[in-house]
Amino acid sequence: MYKAIIPFSLWVVFLTPHACQESPITCFGFPDGKTYAKPGTDNEFYICAAGIPVSQKCKDGLIFYPSEGYCAKEQGSVVTPPPVGPNVCENQVDGTLYPSPSGGSDYIMCKNNQMVVQKCQNNYVFDEAYGGCVENKCSK
């Protein structure tokens, strides 16, 4: 029987975190739909889904407002959510997802009985049957 001997210097390489890594966002103990601003940007954020932080990006021209938990146009100190039609999120559980009327990569996430318009990452579209963003195989 052979025993592998791994020099200590290799263990250090594998166990030492890299300086360029972002500090991890945690969703442990938080409900689905909890949002966190992504450091260093005003239009990206994380949303908790099943205990996992999922990176999201606002639609072009919108910025993320952490205190409100949604993307909207900057209008001085007043934040106005974009209109999207009737409120499908009334009496729904936070984190419930619906396709957006505009379709494609847009979708609606429910938070505090309010609709929050979200956008899938590049080359992903919202799939209602799957209940989330999936790779857009049609664009290849």
TrEMBL record:
InterPro entries: Chitin-bd_dom, Chitin-bd_dom_sf. One of its GO terms (molecular function) is chitin binding. GO terms for cellular component: extracellular region. The keyword Signal applies. Pfam families: CBM_14. Residues 1-21 form the signal peptide. PROSITE patterns: CHIT_BIND_II (PS50940). Residues 24-71, 86-133 form the Chitin-binding type-2 domain. Keywords: Signal. This is Chitin-binding type-2 domain-containing protein. It comes from Hermetia illucens.
